[in-house]
Amino acid sequence: MKTSFFTITIVLLCSTLPLSLSQSCNVKDQITLLRLKNSLGNPNVLATWTSSSDCCKWHFVECDPYNDRIKSLTIFSGDISDTIPDTIGNLPYLETLILRKLTNLTGQIPATITKLTHLKTLTISWTNLSGPIPSFLSQLKTLTTLDLSYNNFNSSIPPELATLPNLESLHLDRNELTGPIPDSFGNITGKVPAIYLSHNLLTGTVPKSLAQVNFTWLDLSRNKLQGDLSVFFGTNKTIETADFSRNMFEFNFSAMNEFPASLSVLDLNHNSIYGNLPEALTSLKLQALNVSYNRLCGEIPVGGRLQNYDNTAYFHNRCLCGFPLTACL
């Protein structure tokens, strides 16, 4: 079959088109990213970000195949030494923003981030960002994941975060947060997120309002919290993992007679909990249990999985006895 002159001409024209006319990246998004790179001091980790290439093919960038707008920006483990530029808010179709293991990234979260009205995942972790966690993050109503762990954020937890209707996980652990858990966390009206608040400087009593919420995953460990933990338990609850270790909780464990069947991990070590171990624990299919370093007494109930753990799950109590500890007298 003969190839027409017209076909050859079209092929030659297409092959000589400038890259800027054939690339799929949206021009506005490309300009925004190049400004972002410049604001960050043109780090080597962003070397692929050049005006002569398609930004949809740059490292750390993902475009939506349907509209060629940038939907994901994930930068990690790079030589970035600056603050988050305000231009980050000029990516209107962004759904995922992850800045992770950038230990020289400093400053605070810019308010322009609230312009990202399609954002579902916001992760800024393992950086040196500091200052208060801004309450304006509550304006990001499409968020399903908010991870601000392993930073230097201080001050109190913004109560407005409880108003995020689609949040599935909240990571504020490994910071320097102070003050109490907001009472507003007992008024969550949307999805109930998994909450990680460990390794902070939180104080005060656990709000009674939290009894109104059915948590599934809760990590309050390594703080200075006090109060009664019964608000999280009961046969009508759905909690699966509960870590309250290394706090200042002081209550009579004997008074807790009901636990949800869903409970599989319970860690209460290093508190001042007293009384006996509740018999109701024998009905649970616990995968992990630790009540060590408390003020518990009496015999460890026999049954369920309570005898499956070694002595480290029970030792350093006032007068707890029975297998796997020494026999009761």
Based on the model shown, name its key terms.
19 strands; 3 helices; 329 residues; mainly beta; disordered N terminus
Explain how this protein is built.
- The protein is elongated and about 80 Å long.
- The protein is 9% helix and 22% strand.
- Residues 1-22 have low confidence and may be disordered.
- The chain has helices at residues 5-15, 19-22, 27-39; strands at 61-63, 70-76, 96-102, 121-127, 130-132, 145-147, 152-155, 169-171, 176-179, 194-196, 201-205, 217-219, 224-226, 241-243, 265-267, 274-275, 288-290, 295-299, 319-321.
- It is mainly beta.
- The strands form three sheets. An eleven-stranded mixed beta sheet has the order 1-2-3-4-6-8-10-12-14-15-17, with no helix packed on it. Strands 5-7-9-11-13 form a five-stranded parallel beta sheet, with no helix packed on it. The chain has a three-stranded parallel beta sheet with strand order 16-18-19, with no helix packed on it.
- The termini are far apart.
Task: Give me the secondary-structure category.
Answer: mainly beta
Distance between the termini: 100 Å
Main pleated-sheet profile: 11 strands, mixed
* Helical content band: under 10%
C-alpha geometry: elongated
Radius of gyration: 26 Å
How do the SSEs run, as a string of H and E? HHHEEEEEEEEEEEEEEEEEEE
Which spans have pLDDT < 50 for at least 5 consecutive residues? 1-22
Main β-sheet, spatial strand arrangement? 1-2-3-4-6-8-10-12-14-15-17
Instruction: Give a count of the beta strands, DSSP E runs of length 2 or more.
Output: 19
Number of helices: 3
Q: What proportion of the residues form beta strands (DSSP E)?
A: 15-25%
The overall pLDDT, averaged over residues, is 92
